[in-house]
Amino acid sequence: MIWRRIEMPASSTFWELHVAIQDAFGWLDYHLHEFEVGSVAIGVPDDYAEKPIVPGWSATLSEQLGKVRTCSYLYDFGDCWRHTIHLEEVRESDGGGYPRCLAGENAAPPEDCGGVHGFQELLDTLNKPRSAAYRELRDWMKNRHAKVYWPFKPQAFDPAEVVFHDPAERLAQLDA
């Protein structure tokens, strides 16, 4: 199981939550995403979407998650990384910097590894260091990807190493 516990202000938008999730998983945020809160789809509006999508930067966590305590987050419609988001509690701010990654477990799958089944194949291949598939995977993780994922340590995760980026800057890149 791979999970993260992130603390955010209730006034945060779903766009800010999306950026925090991307940062907590170390992903590159170059695929589409969508939150489903009940029957409401929240994300980046798309002319080709089959249903209406509420812009993530205009929907706050407090207005949507006040009605339900769980929603789903889908990232990369091809690899289909589906997450379940649980609102654990709402409490007063302590005035500290947000978001915060409080806890988590295991390294996130490398971006574009092929979803759950591709990630399982990746883990299986890492256990066969003398194989041609291992060398090919190692080269892909070292040199042929937009991010260096080598050496990959499946059990490694330290919440203190998560660096959160500015969601406004990320949104400006989306508009560019």
For this entry, give a set of tags.
5 helices; 176 residues; 5-stranded mixed β-sheet; Structural Genomics Hypothetical 15.5 Kd Protein In mrcA-pckA Intergenic Region, Chain A; 28% helix; 19% strand; 2 domains; alpha+beta
Itemize the secondary structure elements and their pairings.
Elements lengths: L2 E5 L6 H12 L7 E5 L2 E4 L10 E2 L5 H5 L4 E6 L5 E6 L13 E6 L9 H12 L5 H11 L24 H9 L1
Parallel strand pairs: 3-4
Antiparallel strand pairs: 1-7, 2-3, 2-5, 5-6
Helix pairs in contact: 1-5
Protein name: Plasmid pRiA4b ORF-3 family protein
Can you summarize the main beta sheet? 5 strands, mixed
Beta-strand percentage range: 15-25%
Q: What is the radius of gyration computed over CA atoms, rounded to a whole number of angstroms?
A: 17 Å
The class by helix and strand makeup works out as alpha+beta
CATH architecture of the largest domain: Roll
N-to-C CA distance: 36 Å
Number of domains: 2
What is the strand arrangement across the widest sheet? 4-3-2-5-6
Number of helices: 5
Segments where pLDDT lies below 50 for 5+ residues? none
Helix content estimate: 25-40%
Series of H and E elements? EHEEEHEEEHHH
Give the strand tally. 7
Morphology? globular
- Going by CATH, what is the homologous superfamily of the largest domain? MM3350-like
The average pLDDT score comes to 93
Q: What's the CATH class label of the largest domain?
A: Alpha Beta
Briefly note the CATH topology name of the largest domain.
Structural Genomics Hypothetical 15.5 Kd Protein In mrcA-pckA Intergenic Region, Chain A
InterPro entries: MM3350-like_sf, Plasmid_pRiA4b_Orf3-like
Domain Plasmid pRiA4b Orf3-like: 2-160
Protein name: Plasmid pRiA4b ORF-3 family protein
Pfam families: PRiA4_ORF3 (PF07929)
